[in-house]
TrEMBL record:
GO biological process terms held by the UniProt record: L-proline biosynthetic process
Molecular-function annotations in GO: pyrroline-5-carboxylate reductase activity
Protein's recorded name: pyrroline-5-carboxylate reductase
Annotated family: Belongs to the pyrroline-5-carboxylate reductase family.
Residue sites binding NADPH per the record: N72
Known EC number: 1.5.1.2
Organism: Elysia chlorotica (Eastern emerald elysia)
Boundaries of every Pyrroline-5-carboxylate reductase dimerisation domain copy: 178-282
Enzyme type, top EC level: oxidoreductase
UniProt entry keywords in alphabetical sequence: Amino-acid biosynthesis, Cytoplasm, NADP, Oxidoreductase, Proline biosynthesis
Binding site for NADP(+): L24, G25, G26, G27, R28, M29, A85, V86, K87, P88
Annotated catalysed reactions: L-proline + NAD(+) = (S)-1-pyrroline-5-carboxylate + NADH + 2 H(+); L-proline + NADP(+) = (S)-1-pyrroline-5-carboxylate + NADPH + 2 H(+)
The keyword Oxidoreductase appears for this protein: yes
């Protein structure tokens, strides 16, 4: 990251509210982020412009008040901060398409594409373009996202602060080296899917044991939410919290024994590894394009 003096908190908030935010690709993540930014009150819907090739996506986006277009160049020409939110294999063609309308001194590119490296982004954009690579997740939609960001070679500290502050409107945002982002994809980028499957399975268990489906889903979801909040609020190790709820000879330790016999922890570790390796594979492809 290039060096630059940081700016104050209220100045960053002012800067965010005056920033025109563009999205290249208006799918699930772009919609989650755009809705999160708007709900935070810091970004006005009219300051967001989104492009997509899919008319259905554009209709969904128009319903939240943002400007839409099918022209990626129009997004870049009208934005200060451009979120690259297309699938990883589409990043290179899209950046080549917009290359001519990029102003490296004025614009900042924020890529959310899994596995696409800062180096390959910088190579596909005009020399000196400021790039920040981030890995968000879909709970951004309800301002409970988890994002890690890594500034590129030409990004200055103001860029990192701006992106971090913007992403904090949709959850937590930590800064880390790019080398960690594939593992971040494995834990939090793909993680909501594991949590949704866990909620569904817990609810299935409840239904099997006689609970109405809607009550079972509500209980399962609130239980994951509550347990997660306890980990974050108390700062205690999750193993310690687990021990505290396993009373000797009780129901919970019997359930834990069943989970251990079925390889619960090993399965989750394998899942994180599989997603990380897939992100790494996508990154290697983008580096050898
Ligand atoms: N989903 C997640 O939980 C998550 C989490 C972290 C990061 N990410 C990253 O976020 C990015 C987007 O993922 P997503 O899940 O939001 O995908 P998505 O729902 O498929 O959204 C991508 C959108 O881009 C559109 N598109 C395709 N080609 C285009 C082009 N040339 N110009 C403009 N738009 C184009 C697609 O239209 P068509 O459908 O017509 O092709 C689609 O609407 C990916 O790079 C992914 O790695 C996703």
């Amino acid at each position: 990251m290039a060096s630059n003096q940081g700016i104050g908190d209220s100045q960053i908030k002012d800067k965010i509210s005056n920033t025109m935010v563009g999205f290249l690709g208006g799918g699930r993540m772009a919609q989650a982020m755009a809705k999160g930014f708007i709900s935070s009150g810091l970004v006005r819907a009219r300051n967001i412009i989104v492009s997509d090739k899919n008319e259905e996506m554009l209709d969904q986006l128009e319903s939240i008040g943002v400007r839409t277009t099918m022209d990626n160049r129009e997004v870049v020409s009208n934005s200060d901060l451009i979120v690259v939110a297309v699938k990883p294999h589409i990043v290179q063609p899209v950046l080549r398409e917009v290359h001519q309308v990029v102003s490296p001194d004025k614009q900042l590119f924020v890529s959310i594409a899994a596995g696409v490296t800062i180096k390959s982004m910088e190579e596909d954009l005009p020399e000196g373009t400021r790039v920040v690579r981030v890995m968000p997740n879909v709970p951004a939609l309800v301002q409970a996202g988890a994002t890690v960001m890594s500034p590129g070679t030409h990004a200055v500290s103001d860029d990192a602060e701006l992106v971090q502050e913007l992403l904090k409107t949709i959850g937590i945002c930590e800064e880390g080296p790019e080398s960690l982002l594939d593992a971040v994809t494995g834990v939090s980028g793909s993680g909501p899917a594991y949590a949704f499957a866990a909620i569904e399975s817990l609810a299935d268990g409840g239904v099997k044991m006689g609970l109405p489906r809607s009550l079972a889903i509500k209980l399962a979801a609130q239980t994951l939410l509550g347990a997660a909040k306890m980990v974050l609020d108390t700062g205690k190790h999750p193993g310690e919290l687990k021990d505290e709820v396993c009373s000797p000879g009780g129901t919970t330790i019997c359930a834990m024994h069943t989970l251990e016999k079925q390889g619960f922890r090993g399965t989750l570790i394998d899942a994180v590894e599989a997603a990380t390796l897939k992100a790494r594979e996508l990154g290697a492809k983008s580096a050898n394009k």
